[in-house]
Every structure is written in C-alpha cells, then in structure tokens.
Hints:
This is Glycolipid-binding domain-containing protein. The protein is mostly beta strands.
Amino acid sequence: MPRGRYSLHDPHDYTPLAEEHFQCAPGPSGWRYVSQLTTPSGDHHGSVDLTLDELGRPIRLELHAAAWQVRGAALDGVTWVRTDPTGTDATEGNVRAHAFTGTSPAFLVATTRLLRLTPSSAGTRVRLVAFTDPVLAPRTVDQSWTLLKREAHATDNGPLTVDEYQVTALDTGEQHSVHIAGDVVLAAPGIELEDLESPPSVFT
C-alpha cells in the first residue's frame, strides 16, 4: 500500500498551492485512493476519496475543498452532486463523459487505469469532468493520451516500471508529459512526489 506525500504548485509560476498526504492500494473492487490536503502554512485544505472498479471506472468519488463538497460516480456517463459551504444548496450534474479529473494526482492514475494504453504513436481520446479549485466548479474537458514508452529502472526493491504519457488538451493543443509507476505519479505539471514510504502497487 503506497503511502507518501505530493507537493502541488502552480505549473506556470510554481507558486506552492498545497501538500497532499496520500495512501492508495488495489482492492477487491479495483483501486482506492485517499488523501488529506494542507496549505503551505499547514492548515487543512481539503480531501480526496476515489474508488475505481476493476475496469478503471469511478464508482465513488468524494472531494472536499474550501467547505465545498462533491460526490460523484460513473452513472449514465458521470453524475455528481456539488454542495455549497452552507450545506443548503446542492446542484446535480451529469455529462456523457468517461471519468473525472482534477488537481489531485489520483486522477492521472485513474485515467491510465481506464485507458489501459500500450506504447504507441496513436493518441486515445477521453472526455473528463474536471473539478477546479478553489470551489470544485465542474468543467468538461477533452484530452488525448498517448503512452510514449515504458521503461524498467533498477531499484533496491527490484525493477520499477515507469510509463511516460503525453497528454494533449484538445481545445488548445497544449501538451505535457506525465510519468507514472504503478499507482504513483512520479512527475507531472504542478505535481512533485516528495516522499514515498513503500513501492508503488503493481497492477496485473
């Protein structure tokens, strides 16, 4: 069960945004990721709880940020309920999309579990609902994912397989790279892996 800490920063000017203390593991249903976020000053900033089924579909999502809350799942596309800080106004949404995304590294791993790509020059299109900080506002995004290469690196715990993905935003054409080992993000825009207490899980 990998357990560790990511630092999150603005990918453009590198302003520190938060630290995400996480743990994740494959389970009977598929894969689960839970985390707590703190601000650079150490205050509580929010939380992530994401469960995927064995096909990589989100069967349970719960996000908290700035007293806003989102609960969602794959249902007729993806469906969610967003609740305001007072708890009195809840808005339901539904989009014909494949899954969710957001600032948490969990969503990058989740997308790779859903797509199950093999090294290729061809991109695979995916539609995602992104919940954007600081109020978890939903926004539909279209991306293309390509698995550029898969390399094994020697470590003290045996070989570590690292996948390098190229992600393209289809509305702007902007591209960036994502490096993932098992269920841990090693590097991505705005994300740095600062600490890892145990090796990434190996998916079969």
